[in-house]
Write a structure and sequence with these properties.
Elements (H helix, E strand, L loop, with lengths): L2 E14 L2 E14 L3 E5 L6 H8 L7 E6 L2 E2 L4 H12 E4 L11 H9 L8 H7 L15 H13 L5 E5 L7 H18 L2 E6 L10 E6 L2 E7 L12
Parallel strand pairs: 3-8, 3-9, 6-7, 7-8
Antiparallel strand pairs: 1-2, 1-4, 4-5, 9-10
Helix pairs in contact: 3-4, 3-5, 4-5, 5-6
């Protein structure tokens, strides 16, 4: 399989006055085209830091990280901005929708600057919201708002979809609906998808599971079979 990301010796240290806090410690990692990866770990394990570096939102203190032939560690802020715009979609725990814009208009914010976007309507139909195009966030449930956020992320047809606790603010049934959408995007669009979570039940739906603790990868495991979101229980 083609490696989309290749990280070697990746470290991140945060400095607060005279105190240093290591968030990542010499991490080696590859993510492959089209796979669905779940990164598991407790709070403080370094999983969000790793996701932010892969997504070009943060710089490593040391080590290398490549996206295809792009060196993200030395690309500079302008290069990282272009990388994020052209290649990466983000989904966070909180939806970050603009309250005064409809679902369609929230997605249009991305499609207007993308090179080869879906239409907002197609993106919202992909996540099961084709009948909610002109509803405002306040008229949508939490799960529907998260699906709008996913539609906004995938509308530019990103190579990679990075998800930080996408079900963390949702109840069990709504969380399963969101995971079904992520699985569908991965399957139908072929987007490499990485989900970070502390919920070990979600690991069953991944191609590979990566466990982190104290800034290091402690286990990489491939699932023989990907479970459907409907089979999960937590």
């Amino acid at each position: 399989m083609e490696a989309v990301f290749r990280a070697h010796g990746l470290s991140k240290v945060y400095r607060m006055g005279e105190v240093t806090v290591p968030a990542l410690r010499s991490v080696d990692l590859e993510l492959y085209r089209g796979e669905f990866v779940v990164m598991l770990g407790p709070s403080g394990s370094g999983k969000s830091t790793l996701l932010n570096i892969l997504g070009g939102l943060d710089h490593p203190t040391s080590g290398s990280v490549h996206f295809l032939d792009h060196d993200l560690a030395t690309g500079g802020d302008k290069g990282l901005t272009r990388f994020r715009r052209e290649h990466v979609g983000f989904v966070f725990q909180f939806y970050n929708l603009i309250p005064s814009l409809t679902a369609r208009e929230n997605v249009e914010l991305v499609t207007e600057i993308a090179e080869r976007p879906m239409t907002p309507e197609d993106a919202l139909r992909l996540v099961g919201l084709g009948e909610r195009l002109d509803h405002f966030p306040a008229q949508l449930s939490g799960g529907e708002q998260q699906r709008v956020a996913i539609a906004r992320a995938v509308a530019k047809r990103p190579d990679v979809l990075l998800c930080d606790e996408p079900t963390g603010a949702l109840d069990y049934e709504t969380g399963k609906l969101v995971l079904e959408v992520l699985e569908r995007v991965n399957r139908e669009v072929g987007t490499t998808t990485a989900v970070i979570t502390h919920n070990s039940a979600i690991a069953a739906m991944a191609d590979r599971v990566i466990r982190l603790r104290s800034g290091t990868i402690t286990e990489v495991r491939r699932n023989e079979r990907r479970a459907s979101p409907g089979e999960l229980s937590w």
